[in-house]
Amino acid sequence: MPELVAPTTAVHASFLEAVDEWVAEGRGTVHDGSMLGRDMVVYGGRWRDPAAFAEYVERNLADARPETPRPVAMVPSTVLWYVTGDTFLGRLSIRHRLTPRLLDWGGIIGYDVRPSARRRGHATAMLRASLPVAHDLGHDPVLVTCDHDNVASRKVIEACGGVFEDQRAEKLRYWIPTSGT
């Protein structure tokens, strides 16, 4: 059964397959402003090397620590991977606080499901499973955003209790309670 886990080198081969799927759909370009896109630009060419992948895993784990150096606009984030056995299905990030940009654009929780694992309920299960973690980090409710034309993500957010607040530029903004999860 799939579960959210801390990033691990145990899923290296499957992670690389997922990255290939994301590249095939056009992710990881300099125009991809998502966390996944940023990681693909920075690490993409090096992930195949086990040592570089281990470094990437450690960077993801370290990102939750407030003292970890990061660019000024970045906030600490708890990164979790959705896996079943040694198969990587997706990733999720819970930001520890909102900045003005995250309030308008990114929200507290962001997630990506690899293309071959979509339309199986994984995104809904990932987001739902992350709510207690977000609550433990002090968030109630959490802001989750999606592109205005991303019907699948909108349905995921709504299935997890998201209440629509408004649209800012191309982003729809929803609040999901974490208490009682």
Automatic annotation (TrEMBL):
Pfam families: Acetyltransf_3. PROSITE patterns: GNAT (PS51186). Residues 40-181 form the N-acetyltransferase domain. Its EC number is 2.3.1.-. InterPro entries: Acyl_CoA_acyltransferase (IPR016181), GNAT_dom (IPR000182). The keyword Electron transport does not apply. Keywords: Acyltransferase, Transferase. It is an enzyme of class 2 (transferase). One of its GO terms (molecular function) is acyltransferase activity. This is GNAT family N-acetyltransferase.
